[in-house]
Design a protein that fits this description.
Blueprint lengths: L3 E5 L19 H8 L5 E10 L5 E8 L4 H7 L2 H18 L3 E4 L11 H6 L3 E3 L2 H18 L8 E5 L4 H10 L5 E5 L3 H8 L6 E3 L10 E4 L18 E4 L8 H6 L4 E4 L2 E3 L2 E4 L10 E3 H12 L15 H14 L2 E2 L3 E2 L2 E2 L2 H13 L8
Parallel strand pairs: 1-3, 1-4, 4-5, 6-7, 6-9, 7-8, 9-10, 10-11
Antiparallel strand pairs: 2-3, 2-13, 12-14, 12-15, 16-17
Length: 360
């Protein structure tokens, strides 16, 4: 049986209070200064994952004490690499044979390539299965809202990243129009060259006309605000931290925001750590690591690395997920399950072409 590990980290300075309650009363700069000196720790043991083939696995959450802000601009990249490599070594000491890079540890630098070269166990970002579930979730949500995708507009925010680029390439087959949004115009144009007929923008304002939006940037704060969204649109937010502001949940009951990549894990899994999901559910990136562990083939352990995810990788991980019993777990939005009422509100708003009160 192969065992796995998965790296987690605080999404902001105050998130550190989950482990150290005193952080609630400290300024962000003081929290970041304190955790910068800390070593990775084992956050919890993960147990009870059982494939429908009968194979089982277990693993560990490894906590990396860095925030996205520190990883992106607060520390030299070599120091960040060193800290993440320490996580892989700690995982190896526990008995893990592969490790998944969670949240910003999969984004920073070269997307896990350097980490894999320094790790004595396999490394994957989990981005292949994240892409697969984002595509599946977006299309399913559009179907529920009666969106005719062949005549609809899709916007992909963060289109130059590995997840955004592949989501755009696959979903372009389904939508009548596609808008690619990235901070760097030259890089976004390069992606556009691979998707005939696509449009390019460097401004998030371009999503105003979109019927469906997939957003997966490396921003450390929300970039999509209530005024950006068309009534009755679908937003699949794959980013962590979220790209969609919490204000959208309060001010725009007429749109359907879903968290990309929420997966039902087979067996009676116990994570022994609260990351905000109901029992037996996990992010797709976590699930990719579990799937590869259940498959137990060392040649697959470094499955997703770098800044690109191919359509072929998405197809392979989808097949392995089905083999082992991993499934898209309905929809969640801002830490809550999406109910029928929320779907109907967005559906009615789409039909009427305008906002509706929450009680409608």
């Amino acid at each position: 049986m192969a065992r796995f590990a998965f790296i987690i980290h605080p999404l902001n300075a105050k998130d550190v209070a989950r482990k150290y309650p005193i952080a609630k009363f400290m300024p962000d700069w003081a929290i970041e200064a304190a955790i910068r000196r800390k070593k990775p720790i084992v956050a919890s043991r993960i147990e009870g994952i059982v494939s429908k083939t009968g194979v089982h696995t277990d693993g560990w959450f490894i906590a990396c004490p860095l925030t996205p802000k520190q990883m992106i601009r607060g520390m030299p990249i070599e120091q960040v690499y060193d800290r993440i490599t320490e996580c892989t070594e700690l995982a190896a000491q526990q008995g893990a044979e592969l490790i998944g890079l969670g949240a910003f540890t999969s984004i920073v630098g070269d997307g896990g390539v350097t980490i894999a070269s320094r790790s004595r166990i396999g490394v994957t970002t989990g981005n292949s299965y994240t892409v697969a579930t984002a595509i599946e979730g977006t299309l399913k949500a559009c179907h529920l809202l009666d969106v005719d995708t062949s005549n609809a507009t899709l916007a992909v925010v963060g289109a130059t990243g590995s997840i955004g680029r592949t989501c755009a390439k696959v979903l372009a087959r389904e939508f009548g129009k596609i808008i690619l949004i990235g901070r760097d115009e030259e890089r976004t144009q390069a992606v556009s060259a691979e998707i005939p007929g696509s449009e390019v923008s460097t401004s998030v304002e371009a999503i105003r006309s979109a019927d469906a939006i997939v957003t997966v940037t490396s921003s450390d704060s929300a970039i999509i605000l209530p005024h950006h969204l068309k009534p009755g649109c679908v937003v699949c937010d794959v980013a962590r931290p979220r790209d969609v502001s919490t204000r959208v949940a309060k001010e725009r009951p007429d749109v359907l925001v879903i968290e990309g990549g929420v997966v039902q894990v087979p067996g009676s899994v116990e994570f022994n750590f609260n990351f905000g999901f109901p029992d037996k559910m996990a992010y797709a990136c976590m699930s990719e690591t579990m799937i590869l562990s259940l498959e137990g083939k060392p040649e697959l352990y470094n499955f997703t690395l770098g800044k690109d995810v191919s359509v072929e990788q998405v197809d392979v991980i989808n097949a392995l997920a089905a083999k082992h019993g991993f499934e898209l777990a309905g929809f969640r939005s801002f830490e809550r399950a999406v109910d029928e009422e929320a779907i109907n509100r967005a559906k009615v708003a789409r039909l009427l072409g305008g906002t509706i009160p929450r009680t409608a």
